[in-house]
Structures are given as C-alpha cells and as structure tokens.
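1st attempt posting a full record on here, be nice pls
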Amino acid sequence: MRSAKINYFIVGLFVMTIIGAVIMTVAMLTGRTGAVDNYFTYYSNVTGIKFGTQVVYEGYPIGQVEEITPEEKDGRMRFRIDFSIIKDWRIPKDSIGEIAAPGLLAAVTISVKAGNDKVSLKPGEMIISKERSDVFAVVSGVAGQLGDLMDSNIKPLLENVNRAVGNVNGIIEKDASALFEEVRKVTQDLAEVVALMAERVPVIADNIESFSGKLNGTADELQKLITPQTREKLEAVISNLNEASI
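the predicted structure (as tokens):
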C-alpha cells in the first residue's frame, strides 16, 4: 500500500513538472514572464490579431495582445488593441507599432519599431500605429500596372513592329526577282571585265617591257653622241647664235 502511494506521488510530481514546464514555455514565447506594463494602439484592420498575439520589439518578444475593442469614430470603425509587455521596458515616444508577419507562413505579430526619441512612453500611453502592409495587395497593384503598361505601350509597339515586318516582306516578295536579276547582270558584267583584263594585261605588260627596252637603247645612243668634243661644238654653235641675234 505504501509503495502504491509513493508511485502515485511520483506520477503526480512528474505531471505537475510537465505542466509547469509548458506554462513557462508559453510565458517565454509570449514574452510575459513576470510583472507587466500595459499600452494600447489603434488599427482600422486587425486581420490575424487575437488574444495572445505576440508583441515584439525589433524582433524580440516582449509581450502579448490582451484585448481587442471595436470603437466607432466619425462614422468609421476602428479597433483598440490593448497589450501588455515586460515591466519597465523602455519604448521611445516616436516608436511605431505595425501589424506584420516575418514570413508568408509565419504568425502575425505586432512589431514595434524603435524610435529615436530620448523620452520614453509611460505605461498606459498609446503607441503610434502603422497600418499593415499587405504583400498580396502590393503584388496585385504591380500586376495591374503591368497590365496597363501592356495595353497602352507594349501592344501598340508590337503591332507597329508586325506592320513594319509585313511591309518589308511585301517589298521583298514584289521586288526580289527584279533585284536578283540586276545583281546577276552586274555579276556577269564584272566577270566579262575580269576576263578582258586577264587577256589584255599580258599584252600591255609586254608592250611596256618593249618600250622600256627601246628607251634604254635610245639613252645609250645619246650617251655615245654626247662626248666632250660634241659638247664643245654645241656650246660654240649656241654662242654664235647668241652673237648673231645681237
């Protein structure tokens, strides 16, 4: 009997330890492990926010959402979010709380971006809010802009390109045969000129060589005729002619 009580005590102690560990884990995950300070903010859309939603400060968990209260103002509905964070946690006055998700599949959190103000918020004061940036809305907007760009610019450009290509194809189909005929004629004329040059060039070369030979012979004959005696006679004749002209 005593052994059974000891076993019950051990089992109960184990269960209480497990429960305590679970409670501590949940408290650490929510950032609520002791005394807390309360703050609030307002949003026009609280999709994904509920009791227990984590509050993080620059990514570090510091608290959780405690209550969501709908309030109507100027004919529009807005939502007050009350949340608690670690006691004495310093939050600059110009800090901003934004509903955000670290990833596409990550849970939504209230992410507090630290400000630069040296004055800190007091417990119970309001944190400046920033509406949630909807990734899917941004993607949808970009897709819409791309669609407008396609309709207003790219499609007319493609139509002009297709029209220009069609005109070029028409010109080629219409005038290609005449163009090819002209090219054939020019090629034939060039071939005839080349053949004529091939025939004439050797004859011209022979004539040039013969003429060069004759020039060389004439130069030799002139060289033989112009002797010192001949040069003196020519100078005497030129001198006589100059005296006769005077």
